[in-house]
Amino acid sequence: MEDREVILDIQNLRTTFSTQEGLVHAVNGISYQLHASETLGIVGESGCGKSVSMLSVMRLLEIPPAKIMADGIYFKGENLLEFPDHEMRKIRGSKIAMIFQDPMTSLNPVLTIGFQIEEPLKLHLGMDDAAAKERAAELLRLVGIPDAESRLSDYPHQFSGGMRQRAMIAIALACNPTLLIADEPTTSLDVTIQAQLVDLVKKLQDDLGMALIWITHDLGVVAGLAERVIVMYAGFVVEDAPVDMLYEDPRHPYTFALLRSLPKINEERGDKLETIEGMPPDLVGLPTGCPFAPRCAFAKDKCRKENPVLEEISLDHQIACWVDVKTGELR
Question: pTM of this prediction?
Answer without folding.
Answer: 0.86
